[in-house]
Amino acid sequence: MQPPSACPCRGGIPWQGVLLAVSLLTFWNPHPTAQLTIEPVPSDVAEGRDVLLLVHNVSGNAVGYAWYRGQITDRTRLIVSYSNLTHSATPGPAFSGRETVYPNGSLLFVNLKKEDTGFYTLQTTTDNFDAEVATEEFCVHEKLPKPNITINNSQPMEGEDSLALTCEPEIHYATYLWKIKNQTIPDGDRLKLSNNNRTLTLFSVTRNDTGPYECETQNPVSASHSDPLTLSISCE
Is CATH 1.10.600.10 the classification given to domain 148-225? Predict the structure, then answer.
């Protein structure tokens, strides 16, 4: 007996036909259009420098661009719009005078300030009035000042006192690093670092703890070192 040519369920079609249909769909199904994206170059930038919001995968029939401050296309947050029909840019309420939009949709932002950190949204419009939106963020970091070390006890007694060395000033989003005699200080039983590494505590100090100590602050765009500090530890 020959095998059935169709599956037993009602309305079934031969399996050869299913394979043919799948093959045709695979062959004729076009690749999806690449999604509109924004690439900040660089994504972390120092105050006073520039960033380019580079646009990728803009539709070939785009006729206009609109850049917004934030994550929504609110007209009160419009920075600048550009028309490919008139080849002209129109500033919006959020325009600062430091932004330049290019015919490919990319936006150059110059002389950045710390408050420029955040999200930016691009909306593109095509000749058939379709719109596409992309959002990205970048971070502006301050240039780090030279740190200094403060101490909670200027005349510690050997074996009796503990000391807390603090790296000043406190800077949000900065990383703190300590060194003694040019060696990184490990966290241990007698040397304890605070959660953010800004304060170094020495328990039951000895004459071997005189130093010198240095602290360093770091962020993604800069680093700064303190002057070395040598402790004066008194013997009982």
Answer: no
